[in-house]
Design goal:
The complex is a heterodimer of chains A (345) and B (388). Chain A has 345 residues and is an alpha+beta fold. Chain A has helices spanning 5-21, 57-66, 74-80, 130-134, 161-165, 189-193, 199-203, 214-226, 290-302, 306-331, and strands spanning 43-48, 97-102, 108-109, 115-121, 140-142, 149-151, 172-173, 182-183, 209-213, 232-235, 247-250, 269-272. Helix content of chain B is 69%, strand content 1%. Chain B has a two-stranded antiparallel sheet. The chains are: A alpha+beta (345), B mainly alpha (388). Bound molecules: iron/sulfur cluster (3 copies).
Chain lengths: 345, 388
Amino acid sequence: MTMNRRQFLRGAAAGAVAVVAAPTAEATPFGPREPKQLPPKAVGMLYDSTLCVGCKACVSACKQANGMPAEQPEQLAAWNEGTWDTAEDISGKTLNVIRVYQNGTMEQKDREKDGYAFVKRHCLHCVDPSCISVCPVSAMRKNPETGIVTHNPDACIGCRYCVYGCPFNVPQYQFDETFGQIAKCQFCNHLQKQGKLPACCDVCPTGASLFGLVTELQAEAQRRLALKPGEMTEFPRGKLGGDRPGHEAPVGHYQPHLYGEHESGGTQVRYLTGVPYQKLGLPELPGQSYASVSEGMQHTLYKGMVAPLALLGGLVVLARRGVKQNEDASNHDEDPPNHDKDQQP
Amino acid sequence: MTAITHQPLGGKVFTKSFLILGLFVLIGAYFILRRFLFGLGDVSHMSNGYPLGVWVAVDVVVGTAFGCGGYAMALLVYIFNRNTYHPLMRPALLSGVFGYTLAGLAVMIDLGRYWNAFNLLLPWYAQLNSVIFEVALCVMAYTTVLWIEFWPAFLERMPLAFKQRFNLDRLQVFLKRYLFLFIGLGVLLPTMHQSSLGSVLLVMGSKLSPLWYTSWLPLLFLTSALAMGYGVVLLEATLTSRGFRLPSESALLTPLSRIAAGVLALFLIVRFGALLAGGHLGLAFAGDVRGNLFLIETVLFLAPIVLLASPTGRASQRRRFLAAVSLLAGGSLYRIDAYLMAVNPGNGWTYFPSAPELMITVGVVCLEIMLYLLFIKTLPVLPGAHQT
Ligand code: SF4
Ligand code: SF4
Ligand code: SF4
C-alpha cells in the first residue's frame, strides 16, 4: 500500500465531489435510470368514464371472481341494513370500486360544474411500477409478456412499502386481520390464464371497462378522442376485437387527455374522462416513474458494488493503522494488571 | 497519553428509575402481545394512506440515527486517526448496539407478515433494485458488527479460567487482531444504509412535500445521521458524568462539539442549497403545517450552531448539552417529518398515532435505556479512573 491516509481521504472526497457535481446542469447528484418499455404483448384496460353508468356490476363481479368479502363501512351500515356491499374505496377487502364525482346540483353527467361523473379505481398495472421497485422480496412481479403486475403473499413480508410508494395508493394491507396480507387487483390473472376476460370487463354492460391489447386500446382511445362529441359511434364490449356485439352510443365530451399514456412512465390501464382527471382523484404525475429516479440513484452508487468495495478497502486499511497507532499509544503505559495474563506469546 | 481502561460503574441495578422504566416496558409488552393476537389495526392507527407509522419513523429511522454514535466516533478515531477520542468509543458503541438491536425488534413488530421475514435472506426472493432490501441487509449486518465490536467488553469481564475453558481467550486474541476489518465494515455499512434511508423516499415523488423531497435526500440523511451520532455522544457524556458524578470529559467534548456543529452546518448548506436551486424555499413561509414544521426544524438546527459558535460556548458544559439536545430534537423531527408528517397521500388521509401504538414505541425506548444502564453498571464500558 503506497497510498497514505491523507491521499485516500483526499481521493475519496474528490470522488464524492465528482459524483455529486457531475450533472450540475440539473443540480441533481444523479440521473434516473432508463425508463421501462411496454411489454410486447401487454394487455390492458380502457376505462371510459363517459360510458360508465355507475351500476357497479364490475365491483360485485370482482368480489366474486377473487373471493373477496362484502364490505360495509360503519357509517353506512345503518342505511343499508347490512345487505349491500358499500365499499367507498379500495381496501383490504375490495380490489375495485366505482367512485362518484359530485358538484353542485349534479344536473348533468360528465360535467365539471353542477354535474357528476364516475371513476373506477384499481391497480393500473404500471409499465414501470413503483411497487415492484420498492419490494425487497420480489413479492410484486410483472409478467414480461403481458405486463400484468401480480402479488405473491408467500414471499411478502408485509413491510407495506408498496402501499407507501405506489403513486396511485393501490396496494392495501389488511390491517384488521391477525395475519393480514396485501390486497391488490392482479388483472384477474387466474381467469386470463384460462382464456377468460377479467371479471370487471366481462360483466360491464356498456364497455366502459374494455379489455384488450394496450396498443390496440391506445388506438381505440385515439379514435374516440378524434370523433365529434354527440356523434353516434360503435362502442365495443368485453374485449376489444372480440366477438361480442358492441353497441351504438353518442360520443362523450372528452377531456383531450388519455390518462395513463404517459403518467408515471405509462400504465396499462388508461382512462378517458369527461371531467378533468384531477377532479376524479387521479393524481398528477410526471411522465417518468419515480421508481426510475430512485433506482437511478441506487445504480449510480452501487453499480457492480465497485464504489462500496473500494470504500471498504480504503476504510479497512485506515482502520488497521488507526488500531495499531492506538495500541502503540496505549502500550507506552503499563498495562492494567488484570490484562497481563491475557497476552498470548 | 494515558491508557484507556474501561470499568464497570457498579452500584445498584434495580434502582427506582430502573423499575419505573420496567413498568413502561411491561405496558409496551402488553400491546405488543395484542398486536400479535389481533393484528396491526388493533393497536395502531396506521392505514393504507399512512401504511408506515411511528414504529418505522421513530424506532427505526430516528432510533438508528441515535445509534450512530458508534459509527460517528469510529470514523473519527480510526479513520481520521483522532486517538484522543478513544475513551468515548465504547459507550458510543453500546448505545449503537441497543439503538440498532431494538430497531430490529420494532421492525419485527411492524412487519405485517413477520413469519415471512426470513425471505429477506433467501437469494431467490432478493430484489436488488429495492432500496429497502439494501437497508434491511445492511442494518442486519451492522447490528452483528456492532455486537462483535462490543464483544471485548464481555470478554474483559469474564474470569480467565472460564475463558480458557471455552477457548474464549483465543477468540479475544482473534478479535483483537482482526478488529480493523470489523471497524472498516462498521463504517461502511452505516454510510450505506443511513444514506439509503434517504433514498427510500425518492420513490415518494409528489407524495412528499418539496420542502423535504430532493435528490439530495441520501446525502441529507447521511449527514444528519452523523451529526446526530456526535450529538448522542455529547449528550451521553454529559448525562453519565452528571448522573453518576464522574469527572467530565470536557477536554474531549469541547473539540467534539465543534465537529458536531461542522457536520450540522454541512447538512444545512446542502439542504438550503437544494431548496434554493429547486425554487421551493418559499413553501417554508406558506403558514401551513408543513411549512411551520420546516421552520421549527430549521430553528432547532441553527440553535446548536449558534450555541457552539464561540470557544467559550464550546467549553461550557451547559451549552454543549443544550446544543446536543437541540440537534437531536431537530434531527428527529426532520426524520419523522420526512417519513410521516410531510407525506401527503391525498384522498383526505390523515394519521396520528394511537395511544397503544405510542406505548409500544415508549416501551422499546425504555427497554433501550434499561439495557444501557444495566450494561454500563456491570460491564467495562465507561472510561474508568485513568492510570498514568
Ligand atoms: S398502480 Fe400501484 S400497485 Fe399497480 S402496478 Fe402501479 S405501482 Fe404497482
Ligand atoms: S408489503 Fe409485501 S408486496 Fe409490499 S413491498 Fe412489502 S414485501 Fe413487497
Ligand atoms: S381485473 Fe379483476 S381484480 Fe382487477 S378490478 Fe377487474 S375484476 Fe377486479
